[in-house]
Structure formats: structure tokens, C-alpha cells
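Handout, section B. The chain below has 292 residues.
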Amino acid sequence: MKCPVCSSEDIRYDPERGQYICANCGAVLEDEVIDQGPEWRAYNYQDRLERERIGSPLTLKVHDQGLSTRIGYDKVKDRIKLMKMQKLQNRIRVSSKDKKLVTYLSLLNSEASKLDLPEHVKETAAFILRKLVENGLAKRIDSYALIAAVLYYSCQVNNIPKYLQEIKTRYSLSSSELWKALERVHKVSKQLQNFKPKIKPVEYIPRIVEKLGLPQLVATKSAEMVNIMYRNGLTSGKGYLALSAAAVYLISTLMDVKKTQKEIADSLNITEVTIRNRYKEIIKNFDIEVSL
């Protein structure tokens, strides 16, 4: 396209006005140009996937990432032939090497829904699970232990506070089974970028306070204390749940709304000894004297 006024070939399109304009002299070459693009806006790649009308968005929660086709149930004359075609299509849709992945993804989606986890957590878990299957780390291990480990790690990556003891109790897993599964998940996560746990100990405090029925001020002061410890590297190697529980116990004691260590331990399915040890460490680090 060339400008008829100045013969410049530097022609720009203005999408807001639907015009082709000469960048050299400003002449409007075409007006009210039809926009061939979509009527919606997409600010990132994920938005675009969700708003496309050519099918459901791509997802890692399905073995073929949602790129498959299905034979529908519309009105047909030969119903038996339709059922045979559907059966054949379902059979060839999953290859023999994908059967294990399909089984694990089906179990993952079911358990993630029961835990009421958001979609981005499910996608992260599905990605990790795919890597486990690809690397042969999903063999000779309890399937529920592996799914539990993957979901727990995905929650850690996405800042969703889930207790390890809660996961362990829900699936009736032994410590050895769960740690074996977590070891495999950690092995895979080392090969991935941006898949490191980002959760901070302060994330656990709101749920602890809510379970114990303590006032909001306890949560605020406990969070301040735990944040100071986190910034100064005093939480390294410590279980975040127990550390947060100990902080809540200490603050509730100082504010005279005390809950016993046993009450806190029972509500979180952890031992009193663990809370007591973290409690002593906090007192030592902050040089606090508590008179009971």
C-alpha cells in the first residue's frame, strides 16, 4: 500500500478507529475498515486459550491435553452403529503407553476435586505427575501415596496451606509410604524451573486461629512474629505448621486467651512435643519470659 498524497509506503493501521493512516503525512487512506479479529480482548496467553471458541482450552489434566475429538449423541438412524463407533473411538483414543498416565490423571482430578483445590493447583499437579510417569518414577509405589505427595507439593508451590498430617490421615498412609512418594516428587522438581515451594509459615496461621476460635489479633501478632523469624532465617529446617502453631500458642498465652498445647496439637493432628520444642526455640530466639 502506498500513500497517494506523498507516495510514502509507511502505512499504519489504527485498530481503535479502523483506519489506515500514512505515518508520513497523516492522510487517511481507508476508513471504517472491518476488524477481522475477535470481539473480545485477551491480555495474556491463558486468557486467549479460555476465550477461543474452537474448543475447550488446553489442559494438562487430560492425557491428550484436550486435543481429542468425540462422537456425539445427536439423532442418528443407526443407533447400534453409533455405539460401536463410539466404543472403537474410545479404544483408539488412549494408546497402550498412555494407559498408566490416564489412570493417574483420573485419580488426580478426582482427589483434587474432593480437596476443593483451585484449577491452577490441579494443572501444576498434573504437570508434575506427567514428569513422574515419563521418568519411570510412578512404578512400584502406592498410587494414592503418589497422588497425595503430588497434590501436597503442588499446594506448596502455589501458596495453598495444606497440612502434611492432614493429607497423610485422609489417605491412611504410613510415614514411610508418604516420604517415599515425596522423595520422588522432589527428585523430579529439581529438574523443573519455577516449581519450588514458595509457601511461607505465616500462610498456616489463619487456619490455625480459625480452628481454635481465637480472636483476629492473635493471628496478626503471630504473623508478625513468624515473619520476623522467616526474614532472619530462623525457620530453616523447621516444620512450618508446628512453628506457626507454637507462635499462636505463645501469643494466645501472652494475651490471656490461652489454648493448651494439647488442644492445639489435637486440632492439627500433630504431637504436643513438636509444639513444645518449637515454642522453646521461639522463646529463646526472642528472649521472652512467660509466667504461667
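Note. The longest strand covers residues 11-14. Compare this with the example in section A.
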